[in-house]
């Protein structure tokens, strides 16, 4: 439980970073000539930061020769999904606003997460859909629509 209590604030901080990232990248768009260029710059800066972090913790940079080439194809899609996520945040935030964009992203994440858990996809343990989980997702969706409307 102590470990969980330490992890929850980190999850909240990471969640709070999303609307900041969305707003910052949306502004970057105007300086670099478009949404795709802004997403690319964002990923380059992120890759540099993560490379420095890997060096700082003594792990070094990953060696492609040691990459898990026998891994399932879908393990390689994380970067593509991240690029889509960042690009859509840049495109949608100025049009929808910060709160609705984050809300719809969160709603999509909740729906996908419940499905992933239910079917035990991507190597995760299965956790069947239940009425409380469905109600939780419905409450999130309801909250998003309230934010969008008011």
TrEMBL record:
It holds the Pfam family DMT_YdcZ. InterPro entries: YdcZ. The chain crosses the membrane at residues 35-61, 73-92, 104-124, 131-148. The keyword Ubl conjugation does not apply. The lineage of its organism: Bacteria, Bacillati, Actinomycetota, Rubrobacteria, Rubrobacterales. Signal peptide: none annotated. The keyword Repressor does not apply. One of its GO terms (cellular component) is plasma membrane. It comes from Rubrobacter radiotolerans (Arthrobacter radiotolerans). Keywords: Membrane, Transmembrane, Transmembrane helix. This is DMT family transporter.
